[in-house]
Amino acid sequence: MPAALAEVVSDFAEVDGQDKLQLLLEFAQELPALPADLEEAAMEPVPECQSPLFLHVDASDPAHVRLYFSAPPEAPTTRGFASILATGLDGHSKDDILAVPDDFYTDLGLAKLISPLRLRGMSAMLTRIKRRLREA
Questions:
Q1: Residue 86, SS3 per DSSP
Q2: How confident is the model at residue 118 (pLDDT cuts 50, 70, 90)?
Q3: Which end of the chain is more exposed for a tag (fewer CB within 10 A), N or C?
Q4: What is the pTM assigned to this prediction?
Q5: pLDDT tens digits, residue range 17-76?
Q6: Can you tell me whether residue 70 is helix, strand or coil?
């Protein structure tokens, strides 16, 4: 697991209960804006997410993969999950991202606080990122 993602997992491990939700909301507020040359319409939708989420994987440089996400402000859980992936994986190599365990999100400890359906949305994001990288 890339060090940046391991640090995010560690941050969640250090807090309990409702503080985990607060940390997720903080991540939601930190989701980077899309670059000016990337429009949501050109991004891939992730229909497994309960809220609208779009992603774009730029693997033109396999040593430095760029990840972009778009989710509405009224979808803080989805934005939080996207921001965790952006924080932990953006800029890392294709091989490092492909090596991330598919169920890493279970280590965040959110299962008691977030519905399984919402957690599957995070899994779907990672699955789609990996699929795009394998196709690149």
A1: helix
A2: confident
A3: C
A4: 0.94
A5: 899 999 999 999 999 999 999 998 899 999 988 889 999 999 999 999 999 999 999 999
A6: strand
Regarding the domain delimited by 3-33+43-135, which CATH topology (the fold level of the hierarchy) does it fall under? Sufe protein. Chain: A (3.90.1010)
Nearest to 78 by CA among 131, 115, 109, 41: 115
Question: What is d(CA 8, CA 19) in angstroms, rounded to the nearest whole number?
Answer: 14
The pair phi, psi for residue 50, each rounded to 5°, is -70, -25
Nearest-angstrom CA–CA distance, 90 and 65: 6
pLDDT attached to residue 89:
98
First vs last C-alpha separation in the chain: 21
In this predicted model, what pLDDT tens digit does every residue of 64-77 receive, in sequence order?
999 999 999 999 99
DSSP notation for 11-44: HHHT--THHHHHHHHHHHHTPPPPPTT--GGGSE
Q: What is the dihedral of CA 15, 1, 133, 115, to 10 degrees?
A: -30
